[in-house]
């Protein structure tokens, strides 16, 4: 009888657990703390915001281990930046207060749509919920016999107080300002600037660096409700944004609306399976891809840092804040599938930015404060080519082409530089590669940024790919002569290939390969005298438009696979302190491979091009398990606002866009029993794992819409038509599946 009771209880508990899981919605799986402790460089931050919205906040600390938070945040204007304004609730002697209080904190709760925290040094509790351009705080005070204050700070700007409201602005860079209108539900008894243990009530306005005002409330105040709007246009517009979005002081209502928006957004991809941690990693990664770009349209208008004017948005949302070097690879391709209207608007925004700039060069790092021209290459052209070739038509292709071409042919290719083309660019145009410095020679080219290096291989390989993208667009526009010109130029990676070593190897202007180059340890911080952030082993595969040609260059399929395996097997070759001191971005290592940096993301899928997709299945499965986990260090490198986590979203579903600009996807291995994508056209695409278990990573056979499928890729058209990709899974590889020559994914050389 006792044994039967134990069995009954076990079954009952199992049923309760199963029921609990069944009621979990997509947003419930999001864990904003994943990656909040960095491996080396910048951690992820637990951002509270609505998808692609102007208002973003997170607790201001160095990372999760931070002992204090610097006040309460009000708006982060730049991805992983500081809060522009700062709110510090306070009880106690005023002479001990300052412009922004460092709070000890506890019992923190963070969800995409909600934040709460105990500021335990002062027995204060705060709750928060965001809307698109406004937010709301509840601040509870436990001490009834102490004076109660709110200290409001701007790091560099002007603020003034009037009755129960505070208004003002903060200066950002490039003559850009962010404005705020903030009000509380109760009237203060005193307000003004701070003088020792008193408030200067005659002085209601303050400005400058770390300017702040103090607002005092009655001693018996138990709760202050505060709501605010933000704007890049004016204080008046900030107030309008608040009144449009948050009409009263109901935080629960704002949080519930935010939760509903996130569920609707994340629910565009529904996954099922027994691995709860995998679901958490998946939906957290998907949430990360919605942190950028942000919509800055406010009541049909927006401020542009590109010409410092307020414009009508002509009925279309205007977006900015994108680091295209990171996001063209997978974040933009993901939006093409599940957010095509938004992706159209984002590309249209890029074109409009170009029209507003002094030089008509397509931006490559557009931010709220303008284009910061970071990194190398001009990959917005890849975003345009990929979207158009996959059927998006919500932007002017001719204008996008002209702007993209100008960015590649008129602006210098030198990294981190906004200067016009110079002597190095002329050399690139004539000789087909970006030259390295000769040994012992100092930099004299004026277009090279003062603290940067030439990054000759990164620039050459990135630009030949960009030129291939130009050829794709030119062909669509009927510009056959230009299409042929850029198509031929896109083969110039041959110019820097060293046939003796099988690596891409920097050359100087005389055509001499860089001497004494160890591909593991290229010279310069981050290897920038030769590559960029990664070493020669990673850049060996950076020809995404023509992998078939790369297979031939490396000696055929068997040699290609051996070289891939050699990369994963070759140890760092230095102690980690020495290695990462120079190559800090080259993280998430498996041998010489770097899972923590975007140029590596397509590499695990390249086995498919050599007829060994089983190796891709093994590698992708292991990389996800090793480096993307449901824990505080579960991100292997700089996440860059969706740049890295988009790899996770695609890879856990079971395929990846190896070549933006080619309308196809390379099959990897599914992490779920079922992944269902809402295509937004009334159709759905499902990836179904038959014989699913988290350990069954190898594809035994496949069907696409009921037909036997023996290719390791499928087209974008096949995806957008809806249907089912059924993958029969097993614990051991079927090395014959998709191994034939006709099963290999297409490349540029195969499509000409």
Description:
The chain is an alpha+beta fold and 752 residues long. Among the domains are: 31-262, Beta-galactosidase, Chain A, domain 5, CATH 2.70.98; 314-416, alpha-1,2-mannosidase (Glutathione S-transferase Yfyf (Class Pi), Chain A, domain 2), CATH 1.20.1050. The protein is built from 20 helices and 36 strands. Strands 4, 5, 7, 8, 9, 10, 11, 12, 13, 14, 15, 16 and 17 form a 13-stranded antiparallel beta sheet that branches. A six-stranded mixed beta sheet has the order 18-31-32-36-33-34. The longest helix has 21 residues, at 2-22. The protein is globular. 54% of the residues are buried.
Summarize the structure.
This protein is an alpha+beta fold and 752 residues long.
Detail the topology: elements first, then pairings.
Blueprint: H1 2-22, E1 48-49, E2 56-57, E3 68-70, E4 72-73, E5 85-91, E6 102-104, E7 106-111, E8 114-119, E9 124-130, E10 134-141, E11 148-162, E12 165-171, E13 177-184, E14 190-195, E15 198-200, E16 205-217, E17 223-231, H2 235-245, H3 251-266, E18 269-272, H4 276-288, E19 294-295, E20 301-304, E21 309-312, E22 319-320, H5 324-327, H6 331-338, H7 340-356, E23 366-367, E24 370-371, H8 380-389, H9 397-409, H10 423-431, H11 456-476, H12 480-489, E25 497-498, E26 503-504, H13 536-539, H14 547-553, H15 557-569, H16 576-582, E27 589-590, E28 593-594, H17 613-627, H18 645-653, E29 655-656, E30 664-667, E31 674-678, E32 684-690, E33 698-704, E34 707-708, E35 713-715, H19 716-720, E36 723-730, H20 748-751
Parallel strand pairs: 32-36
Antiparallel strand pairs: 1-2, 3-6, 4-5, 5-11, 7-8, 8-9, 9-10, 10-17, 11-12, 11-16, 12-13, 13-17, 14-15, 14-16, 18-31, 19-22, 20-21, 23-24, 25-26, 27-28, 29-30, 30-35, 31-32, 33-34, 33-36
Helix pairs in contact: 4-18, 6-7, 7-8, 8-9, 8-11, 9-11, 11-12
């Amino acid at each position: 009888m006792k044994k039967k009771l134990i069995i009954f209880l076990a079954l009952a508990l199992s049923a309760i657990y199963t029921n609990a899981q069944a009621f979990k919605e997509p947003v419930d799986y999001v864990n904003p703390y994943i990656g909040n402790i960095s491996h080396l460089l910048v951690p992820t931050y637990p951002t509270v915001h609505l998808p692609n919205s102007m208002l973003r906040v997170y607790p201001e600390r160095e990372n999760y281990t931070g002992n204090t938070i610097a006040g309460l945040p009000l708006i982060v204007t730049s991805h992983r930046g500081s809060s522009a304004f700062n709110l510090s609730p306070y009880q106690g002697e005023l002479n001990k207060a300052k412009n922004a209080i460092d709070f000890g904190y506890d019992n923190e709760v963070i969800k995409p749509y909600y934040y709460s925290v105990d500021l335990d040094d002062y027995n204060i509790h705060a709750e928060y919920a965001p809307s698109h351009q406004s937010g709301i705080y509840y601040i509870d005070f436990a001490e009834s016999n102490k004076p109660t204050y709110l200290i409001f700070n701007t790091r560099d700007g002007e603020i003034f107080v009037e009755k129960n409201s505070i208004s003002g602005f903060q200066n950002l860079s490039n003559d850009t300002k962010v404005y705020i209108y903030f009000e509380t539900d109760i009237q203060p008894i005193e307000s003004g600037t701070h003088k020792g243990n008193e408030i200067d009530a005659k002085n209601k306005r303050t400005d400058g660096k770390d300017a702040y005002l103090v607002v005092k409330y009655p001693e018996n105040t138990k709760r202050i409700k505060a709501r605010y709007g933000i704007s890049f246009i004016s204080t008046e517009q900030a107030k309008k944004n608040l009144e449009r979005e948050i009409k009263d002081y109901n935080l629960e209502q704002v949080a519930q609306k935010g939760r509903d928006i996130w569920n609707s957004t994340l629910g565009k991809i529904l996954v099922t399976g027994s691995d709860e941690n995998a679901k958490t990693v998946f939906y957290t990664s998907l949430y990360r891809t919605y942190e950028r770009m942000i919509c800055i349209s406010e009541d049909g208008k927006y401020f542009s840092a590109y010409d410092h004017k307020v414009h009508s948005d002509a009925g279309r949302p205007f977006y900015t804040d994108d680091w295209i070097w990171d996001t063209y690879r997978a974040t933009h391709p993901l939006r093409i599938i599940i957010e095509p209207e938004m992706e159209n608007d984002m590309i249209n925004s890029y074109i409009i930015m170009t029209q507003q700039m002094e030089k008509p060069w397509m931006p490559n790092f557009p931010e709220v404060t303008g284009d910061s021209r970071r990194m190398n290459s001009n990959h917005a052209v890849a975003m345009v080519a990929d979207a158009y070739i996959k059927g998006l038509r919500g932007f002017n292709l001719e204008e996008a082409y002209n702007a993209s071409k100008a960015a590649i042919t008129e602006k210098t290719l030198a990294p981190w530089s906004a200067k016009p083309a110079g002597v190095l660019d002329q050399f690139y145009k004539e000789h087909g590669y970006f030259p390295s410095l000769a040994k012992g020679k100092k930099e004299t080219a004026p277009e090279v940024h003062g603290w940067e290096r030439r990054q000759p291989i990164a620039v050459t390989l990135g630009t030949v790919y960009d030129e291939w993208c130009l050829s794709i667009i030119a062909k669509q526009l009927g510009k056959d002569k230009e299409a042929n010109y850029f198509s031929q130029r896109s083969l110039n990676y041959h110019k820097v290939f060293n046939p003796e070593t099988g690596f891409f190897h920097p050359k100087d202007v005389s055509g001499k390969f860089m001497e004494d180059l160890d591909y593991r340890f290229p010279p310069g911080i981050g290897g920038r005298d030769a590559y960029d952030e990664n070493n020669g082993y990673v850049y060996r595969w950076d020809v995404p438009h023509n992998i078939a040609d790369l297979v031939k260059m490396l000696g055929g399929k068997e040699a290609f696979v051996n070289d891939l395996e050699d990369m994963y097997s070759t140890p760092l070759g230095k102690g980690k302190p020495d290695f990462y001191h120079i190559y800090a971005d080259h993280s998430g290592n498996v041998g010489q491979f770097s899972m923590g940096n975007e140029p590596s993301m397509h590499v695990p899928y390249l086995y498919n091009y050599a007829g060994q997709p089983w190796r891709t299945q093994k590698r992708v499965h292991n990389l996800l398990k090793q480096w993307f986990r449901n824990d505080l260090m579960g991100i292997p490198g700089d996440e860059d606002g969706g740049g890295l986590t988009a790899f996770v979203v695609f890879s856990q579903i079971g395929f990846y866009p190896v070549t933006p600009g080619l309308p196809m996807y390379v099959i990897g291995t599914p992490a779920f029993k079922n992944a269902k994508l809402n295509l937004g056209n009334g159709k759905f695409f499902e990836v179904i794992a038959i014989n699913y278990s988290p350990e069954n990573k190898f594809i035994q056979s496949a069907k696409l819409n009921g037909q036997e499928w023996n290719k390791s890729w499928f087209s974008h058209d096949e995806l957008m038509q809806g249907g089912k990709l059924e993958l029969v899974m097993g614990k051991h590889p079927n090395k014959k599946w998709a191994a034939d020559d006709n099963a290999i994914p297409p490349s540029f050389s195969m499509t000409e």
